[in-house]
Model the fold of this input.
Amino acid sequence: MQHAVLDRMDRVTDDVLSLVLRGAETPLAPWEPGAHIDLALPNWLTRQYSLCGDPAVQEHYRIAVRYDPLSRGGSEYVHLFLEQGRTLDISLPRNNFPLLPASHYLFIAGGIGITPILPMMRTATEAGAATTLLYVGRSPETMPFTETLRSTYGDRVRTVATRVDGRPDFRTLATELDPHALVYCCGPTSMMDQVESVFPADRVHIERFRPTARPTAPNTPFEVRCARTGDTVQVPEDMSMLDALKYAGHPLPSGCREGVCGSCELTVLTGTPDHRDDIGAPPARIYPCVSRSLSHHLVVDL
Ligand code: FES
Done:
């Protein structure tokens, strides 16, 4: 956990605010493109926001928050109640969307999904890679940072305002993709699903901030042994592993409780996890807010 002061708030479109945070007592931790932080709001909600500033600038973090009319209280609080100068608790940066080395990149951003893409575009371009950004939004005035992107990257940036231009043709883009290019995409679920379906699976990287609806096997009870403390915790079928561990005296950080942020990550030492997260946990990791166990017994590093 880090303490930060909200240094600046700037309106970048009618419904997007840019927030600059600086360390309250100590410098903020370094980060890499694709990283996000959990922001603990004074109304007891915790929300995840991608860092969208320059990773080389150590003094502050920058995030951008779009007002969501269907807000469950996060963006609404930021837009209506949060004030400059307020001290906030934020997590250390966590990166579930790392930028892998490549000579060519195609970045695809939809709406506020531009935020993790901004530092990626900067870092990849500065490293000498061939970069292209396709930035999609409803209309030009709803797309934050467009002018900065155009003035910095010129014709490497292509904007598509769907109300004017219609939807982009991802299928054609996929056929034209450079054989060495990696694709990074963040935006609305429908757009990411489409991108995932047309680009080669081993070259496309997606970051989701909402869980995907998909069928899962019925929950069954299982037990978790905590290797460090030696105690065994029963996980009933109607309880998450995260809650079972919490009630047994092992509270874990839990930013989203939806399998998208990564804050509850545990290392699995023995057993077969039933991965239900949207991060793409490697076999030896588990996100216990949503994931369960296929084996009756799971041993975790706790
Ligand atoms: S709390 Fe976010 S992944 Fe578990």
